[in-house]
Amino acid sequence: MLLSNSIQSVCRHLLAAAVITCSSVAHIDAKVIVEKPWKHGALQATSDGHYLQHKDGTPFFWLGDTGWLLPQRLDRYEAAYYLNGAREAGFNVVQVQTLNGIPAINCYGQMSNIDGFDFSGIDRKGVYGYWDHMDYIVDAAAAQGIYIGMVCIWGGLVKGGGMDVEQAKSYGTFLANRYKDKPNIVWIIGGDIRGDIKTEVWETLANSIRSIDKNHLMTFHPFGRTSSAEWFHNADWLDFNMFQSGHRAYDQIKGDGDDRASAAFNEDGWRYVEAARAKTPAKPVLDAEPSYEHIPHGLHDPAMPRWQGYDTRRYAYWSVLAGACGHTYGHSSVMQMKRDGYLGAYSAETSWIDGMNDPGYRSMKHLKNLMLTFPFTTGVPDQSVISGANGERYDRVIASRGSDYMLLYNYNGNAVEVDMAKIPGKKKRAWWYDVADGSLKYAGEFDGAKKTVLRPEKPSRADGSVDMVLVVTDSEASYIQPEHTQLASK
């Protein structure tokens, strides 16, 4: 196997990262203790149906990384290194393609399917098989406190006739029995496909798993610019919705969206959230595939501009402050575990190791830290806190409001007029939160009853981006103080 220089350079770190344990706490090194979120119980929707929490009521903010080809491309040591790095970057979910082929073949040359969809003889004595490696990845993720979002089989395989209803029943039974007792599984049906294509196969797969495993959440990963809410919102097996805002720019229209979450939404990821939240009964929703960092606009033309870290932040903050229960980020090289010396899909050039150090990848944790600083599961999206007309496209400010705080994402650094009276308190405090590095700058105390115009000081960033979050609280609230320059890591 040809390894890149960047991958070879991590070898000295692998022993610490590869410590895999099934105990409640994993010691990754002498200073780091990883707490397991599932110690608070299984994941479930909040009572209002809009967010996720653990059984004991502890809020869960989904921050996912896209690691589609992790099970196929990385060996044990590389997988451990990747998962350790994902945790360090703040991710608590990794979405993977469990089967990207029929059969799928991993880096050890082992096949996922030996006898069609009859898995009775898949575990062979003395052979470290495909599913042994998948087991290892699930356990390695658990040691890092990370959930594995298992896309059971990629949609294109099913669309092409690779799995029928009876095979879906067999496969779902196999998966559920193998992973029902793992604490860190989220089932993802579909995989970049519309829900009205092979619907009976997806329903059978979902119900086969759910008949055995009632403890793990389940959702559906749809095609670009569509949402699971359009086909499966009322399905008993669907616990929360996913949409794919996709990789195309405003001017790249193909018209492949559906009636509600359509191509007309363009890059406005917040619109998909609004559409899903308008449905009853209420179910949580998140963007499971926005534009990947460093992938060309529209995916296929290498001459097109590449999406940058600030683009990935815009998608994330727009959807979360519009009411999403979390967000999944993606990087072109990381999602395919691209190696130096190999031709990457979608014009990927850098290795997955290098991708994990790119600005968007490293800045996602600041979103999670921000949301978990506040009781976000009791908050509501509320654009009325912005006084007067809001902007369009990149000039739009997206806002969320709690009982004594407001969060406003400002992508272009424009002045924004805030209705301070939208939350109680005679005085209000405000801060500018730098979404690129997580720093806080106190903006002052203001009259709590007035509409106040605030404009951020443009940060000094190499890429020229200026996106910030305006944080406003009742002056009596204790979430953050004027002297604070960072938020606590969550």
Q: How far is it from the N-terminal to the C-terminal residue, by CA? A: 37 Å
| Number of H- or I-type helical stretches | 14
Biggest sheet strand order reads 10-9-8-7-6-14
Radius of gyration: 22 Å
The count of strands amounts to: 22
Beta-strand percent range: 15-25%
Report the major sheet: 6 strands, parallel
Structural class: alpha/beta
Weakly predicted, low-confidence segments = 1-30
Instruction: Give the helix level as a range of percent.
Output: 25-40%
- What spatial form do the alpha-carbon principal axes imply? globular
Mean pLDDT across residues = 90
Describe this structure in words.
51% of the residues are buried. The protein has 14 helices and 22 strands. The longest helix has 15 residues, at 165-179. By secondary structure, it is an alpha/beta fold. The chain has helices spanning 5-8, 11-17, 70-73, 76-88, 130-143, 155-159, 165-179, 199-212, 229-232, 269-277, 309-321, 332-335, 352-355, 359-373, and strands at 25-27, 33-35, 43-45, 52-54, 59-60, 62-66, 93-97, 147-151, 185-190, 218-221, 226-227, 241-244, 285-287, 326-329, 380-381, 398-401, 405-410, 416-419, 427-434, 440-447, 451-454, 468-474.
Provide the fold topology.
Blueprint: H1 5-8, H2 11-17, E1 25-27, E2 33-35, E3 43-45, E4 52-54, E5 59-60, E6 62-66, H3 70-73, H4 76-88, E7 93-97, H5 130-143, E8 147-151, H6 155-159, H7 165-179, E9 185-190, H8 199-212, E10 218-221, E11 226-227, H9 229-232, E12 241-244, H10 269-277, E13 285-287, H11 309-321, E14 326-329, H12 332-335, H13 352-355, H14 359-373, E15 380-381, E16 398-401, E17 405-410, E18 416-419, E19 427-434, E20 440-447, E21 451-454, E22 468-474
Parallel strand pairs: 6-7, 6-14, 7-8, 8-9, 9-10, 12-13
Antiparallel strand pairs: 1-2, 3-4, 4-5, 11-12, 15-16, 16-17, 17-22, 18-21, 19-20, 19-22
Helix pairs in contact: 2-4, 4-5, 7-8, 10-11, 11-14
